[in-house]
Each structure stands twice: as C-alpha cells, then as structure tokens.
Amino acid sequence: MFASKSTLWLAFFMICFGLGYSTLNRYDPTQAQGLTDSQQYFRMVVDGARTAEYHLRYRVLVPYLAKPIYHAAMGHVGNWNPVSFSMLVVNSGFCASSALLLISLAQAFGLPSATGLIAALAYLLNFNVVNAQLAGYVDSSEAFLMICLILVLQRKSWNALTLLGPIGVLGKETFAPIAALFVCGWLWRAKKRPWLQIGIMAVASVAVIVAVRSSIEGHLVTPREIVMTENEIAEPETLLHNTAQVFGSWTTWMTFLWLAPFARYGVRRLPRAAVSGTLVAAAGTVAMAIWVDAGQNTSRYLFDVAGPCLSLAFAVGTKEITEGREWFGGVRKRDVGSQ
Questions:
Q1: Hey, where are the domains in the chain?
Q2: Hey, is 191 helix, strand or coil?
Q3: If pLDDT is split at 50, 70 and 90, which confidence band does 165 have?
Q4: Bridge partners for 328 per DSSP
C-alpha cells in the first residue's frame, strides 16, 4: 500500500513539475504581469523574510522550505533559475500531496478510488494550479492544508485540528479565518462539537501569527496591532466596485466554469457537512476578497476552499454523465431513451 501511494505521489510530482517547468527558464515569475507577489517570495528564499515587503513577508512556510533546496541547487541546475527551481520543487510537492489526499478523501466519502483519481487529475489541471500554485506563489501550502482539514473533519480526528491551524498560518495567514469558517459550516448540524480542540486551534493559530510577526519585525507585535493594521474601513461605493471586480473577473470564470456543469450532478453524492462547510467558507472568502479588493486574485483563494470538493463532485458528475444517468426533470436520460 505504501509503495503504491509513493509511486502515485511521484507520478503526481512529475506532472506538477512538468506543468510548472516554464518558470525555470522560459519566463521569470518575478517579472511577469500578474505575478508580482512572487518577487517577495523569491527574496525570502535568497535573503530571508525581512527583505520582503508588506504582509507577504510573514508567509514563511514555502519560501523557507525552498531555501535549503535553493542553496543545494546553486551551480548545479544549468541554465535553470535556482530560486524558481527550489520554489517549484516545494510547490510541486504540496500539489502532488493534495492530489494524493484527494484520493484518500474520496475513499473517506465512500466514493471509488477511480473517482478520486479523476478528481486528483482534474484538480491538477485547474487554471489556478498551473498559473498560481506552480508559478512562484505560496498558495499550494494553503490548498494542501485545506484538504487535510476536510479529511480530519470527515474522520473526526479532532486532535489533529490543534496542529493544522498553526501550520496553516505559517503558509498564509488567511488560513485561520477560512479554516474557522469551514469548521463552523461542517459542524453546523453536528450534535457534538469538539470545542476544546477548536479553541486550541484558534489560540495556537493566533499565537503563531504573533510569534512570526514579532520575530521578523524584531519587537512584540500584539494581536491588536495586527487587527488595526489589516482593518481598513471601505466605502459602500468601493465595496460595490470590488464586488463587480470579483464576479466579473475572467480568472474566476476560467477556474470554475468548466467544473460547474459536471459538478452539479455529483455534488449530491458528497456528505452534506462537506458541502455546507465549503459553501460557508467560500462565502466568507468572497466577502473578505471584496473587502480587501482582491479582484481577479479571488479565484486563487476561492479555489483553495472550494477546489477539493468541487473536483470530487466533478469526478462523480463525469461518471454520471458518461453512464447516461444525468437527470432531466426527474427522469434519467437513459430511461427517456428506452421509452
């Protein structure tokens, strides 16, 4: 079992490395339009977090995992950019792990392994995986940990929640509110809720955020200072403009439009808790994106949240459609054909 999973993970890793290959010598992510955040992450790999700017300098997980690979690769990767190489290796590892976990998640949902494999491949072929997660960004870690969160909730491994929160905020601070929303949506109708573990998860996440920021800034950064820094009051007109930007972005349509027609047939096969968790977290993500004017970047955050269950629903839906079992007004198509 371990050998087969290792082989599958390696195959996924090679697929991801191939999808992101162009970042090695065909274009520089730090100079490409729309990938400006990668400049800060590349600086972190080479010179540490303090050389980066804005809140991006606190997203240390992927750049610091890439740092030793970068030092080992210098002078040994030919004409490849060693920083791009190190980031691609780490991001490919996270994406490959996400794909492998999707198969485990499908099994945990009572779906066939083949359905999980289709979901994994659909996930890797998504617009955001190729153009964000494998293009010098750090989204791959948040996406991976979101799948871990879903699997933990499905298996009721509550103690693991206390670890996921702190690790998640090392990748991106947005993991804390998104994960909290997902857990609330998942446990909405649950009779028993693991309040202790949820509380520890929240406190530990905040503690790690404070510790990382204080370490990088060289002085104690309190939670109040963090809230005051991030909390800017937006005008109603601005919110309306931001909403139009989010829903009118072509990247949002590129990410979800091809999945939705198939997923609508497969979503009923997913656990209700998974669907409600995804919907609540997705709604919160869109609200936060509108508030901070994320624009076309919203699709990245939204895919981290909705991508796993949407890919599984897509896989189930494709099976339903190819077997002629889609429904039209309560009548199955294959039944209509036989009348």
A1: 2-222+232-324
A2: coil
A3: very high
A4: 331
